[in-house]
Write a structure and sequence with these properties.
By secondary structure, the protein is an alpha/beta fold. The protein contains 13 helices and twelve strands. It has two domains: about 240 residues, Aspartate Aminotransferase, domain 2 (3-Layer(aba) Sandwich), CATH 3.40.640; about 120 residues, Aspartate Aminotransferase, domain 1 (Alpha-Beta Complex). It starts with a helix and ends with a helix.
Length: about 350
């Protein structure tokens, strides 16, 4: 099946005896056994639940994965991912990451004995120079948050091929509808399902999709042990969100292309960061005053953290998504008082332009 069809029909309840079109919410914490040492395949919802299983299966299909695990949040997924590693292990990461990832790595993961090097992964030689005998993973985000830098996944995969170094890709911004990192050589894909997969700013979720059974088994053990699994009701909401993923991404991307072009023509806008794919834009304006005026004046758009919903949201990275990144690191990456980030929604693009035009002046 094509990706847009998988979005609509990829989640199936294998236990359905009623003909229900929607996957039911199996709101049960535990399941009875038909006999001693017998199981229906479900024992306890922390380990697996039929609603969550249906969701995991549709994302597995979309990502061309072997298995997918659903977590309570994107950060819960990343925290579980870090449990694959041991004290002394070294990870190379994209320097322009989501601030929450940096916070996790620099506080919790470093405290647990992991070491990190942050490099501009657009230049493969930057990665090569940091690989050593303790390197166990390369963690890239592409496009990056918030500067929209693009890393060649296949080129990085050439570095990790035939090694024990895992290639991990945060695919939140593009989703499997626009990018499938596992088909390009990645080992693990990370998603904040709160964003485009859910698509309605009403549910928290996170996912790890993997390319081999052994890795899946290791992560499933961590998943059930740490316990940050996605609830049946939230699984139902993400399944419902994915049904419209294709049409939402197409519409939001079409809007983003128009908005990026419009922004590039405004005298108050000094830089527009848009890679030509997806619906995320960041842009730098001429002053802090202009940035704050936009945030406080928009009426159709909303000044709010997060992204990927049907509504257009505008964010101030230095005070929101990247507030915990040391100021010198933020400034060196262009995340200053003049930078705004926009998650373009599916409204009429003329209304979005009119809203920005009014706010920017």
């Amino acid at each position: 099946m094509k990706k847009d069809t998988i979005c609509v029909q990829g989640a199936k309840d294998k236990h359905n005896s009623t003909g229900a079109i929607a996957v039911p919410i199996y709101q049960s914490a535990t399941f009875s056994h038909p006999g001693v040492e017998q199981s229906t395949g479900y024992d306890y919802s922390r380990v697996q639940n039929p609603t969550r299983e249906a969701l995991e299966q549709v994302i597995t299909k979309l990502e061309c994965a072997v298995d997918t695990l659903a977590f309570s949040t994107g950060m819960a997924a990343e925290a579980a991912l870090m449990e694959l590693f041991n004290p002394g292990d070294h990870i190379i990461a994209t320097d322009d990451l989501y601030g929450g990832s940096i916070r996790l790595f620099d506080t919790i993961s470093k405290k647990n004995g992991l070491t990190f090097d942050y490099v501009d992964t657009r230049n493969i030689s930057n990665i090569k120079t940091k690989i050593n005998d303790k390197t166990k993973a390369i963690f890239i985000e592409t496009p990056t948050n918030p500067m929209m830098k693009i890393t060649d996944i296949a080129a990085v995969a050439e570095l990790t091929k035939n090694t024990d170094i895992l290639l991990i890709v945060d695919n939140t911004f593009l989703t499997p509808y626009l990018q499938q990192p596992l088909t390009l050589g990645a080992d693990i894909v990370v998603h904040s399902g709160t964003k485009y997969l859910g698509g309605h700013n009403d549910t928290l979720a996170g996912f790890l999709s993997v390319n081999n059974t052994e890795l899946a088994e290791r992560l499933r053990f961590i998943h059930k042990t740490v316990g940050a699994c996605l609830s049946p009701f939230d699984s139902f909401l993400i399944i419902r969100g994915i049904k419209t993923l294709a049409i939402r991404m197409e519409k939001a991307q079409a809007n983003a292309i128009v908005l990026a072009e419009w922004l590039s023509k405004q005298v108050q806008v000094k830089q527009v960061n848009y890679p030509g794919i997806g619906a995320m834009i960041s842009f730098a304006v001429d002053s802090q005053q202009t940035a704050r005026r936009i945030l406080e004046s928009v009426e159709v758009m909303m000044f709010a953290e997060s992204l990927g919903g049907v509504e257009t949201l505008i964010t101030y990275p230095m005070l929101q998504t990247h507030a915990d990144v040391p100021i010198e690191d933020r400034i060196s990456r262009g995340i200053d008082e003049k930078l705004l980030r926009m998650s373009v929604g599916i409204e009429n693009v003329e209304d979005l332009i009119a809203d920005l035009e009014r706010a920017i002046k």
